[in-house]
Amino acid sequence: MSGAERAIVAALRSEVAAIDPARPCDRRAELAGLADVTPRDPVAARLAVRLARGEAAATGLVGTPPDPSFAFEAAPEHCRSAYLRGRFLAAGSLSLANGRTHLEFVVPLEEAPRLAERLLLAGLPAASRERRGRGVVTWKSADTVGTFLRRIGAGASLLELEARQVARAMRGEMNRVLNAESANLQRAVAAAGRQIAAIGQLERDGRLATQPRFVRLVADGRRQTPEATFTELAGRLGMHRSTVQRSLERLVRLARDDDAAPRVRRRAVRALA
């Protein structure tokens, strides 16, 4: 990821970790999600300490470790969101590399299918697999990741992330359109070049003068405006677009057939020799 993308991820984690659950049940649910947090993650570690102190102050039980058990299926929606927020901070990682949004939870192997079932129950289906002896639960859909982050409380940093995704998508679409237009322009220029060359050849050998008047008008219009499209040329000449296109195709075909005739005659002579 770029430095800006890492900064967004760090800001998002800090924003989510700053949420202070108002309900005691939400505090316990989030602590359950944070049960296996490591000291190497200072944001999640500080949150676990803060929540544990709040729980101790509320219950009078000081020094009691977080209870990792949590009845997700029977819990209300707000408790589920608090639990998932804890699991994200303890075991989740968000990647924005190469324009792709990727969120995964790296958990004990036996927990992975259970976490995937809980996410499915929450309406957020995820893939689950084993990687180097650990369970990995993954989302690769930007929409699903956004829904999850919104559900666990992400706000301003998520808006910034979504704004960057929209800007990236717009740049990609603009590049696609520009590339398509450039390719169309190159084809049009090449076609106009073939048409003008054909017109010149037919004029030199006198065959252009034998063509119908509307074909000669199209040939003259093409030479005067080589950059014009069929539609533009038709408007300038007061003809249908199909008439202009068929006339130019006819001129190119006549010139090509004339080029091929000497080769045909030479092959016939060799066959008779």
Write the layout of secondary structure elements.
Layout: H1 3-17, H2 24-33, H3 42-59, H4 77-91, E1 92-95, E2 102-107, H5 112-121, E3 127-131, E4 134-139, H6 142-151, H7 156-204, H8 213-224, H9 230-237, H10 241-272
Antiparallel strand pairs: 1-2, 2-4, 3-4
Helix pairs in contact: 1-7, 2-3, 2-4, 7-10, 8-9, 8-10, 9-10
Describe this structure in words.
This protein is of the alpha+beta class. Helix 7 crosses helix 10 (241-272). Mean pLDDT is 84; it is low at 260-273. The protein folds into two domains: 3-154, Endonuclease I-creI (Roll); 178-272, no CATH class. The chain contains ten helices and four strands, in the order ααααββαββααααα. The radius of gyration is 35 Å and the shape is rod-shaped. Strand 3 and strand 4 form a beta hairpin. It has helices at 3-17, 24-33, 42-59, 77-91, 112-121, 142-151, 156-204, 213-224, 230-237, 241-272, and strands spanning 92-95, 102-107, 127-131, 134-139.
Q: In summary, what is this structure?
A:
The protein has helices at 3-17, 24-33, 42-59, 77-91, 112-121, 142-151, 156-204, 213-224, 230-237, 241-272; strands at residues 92-95, 102-107, 127-131, 134-139.
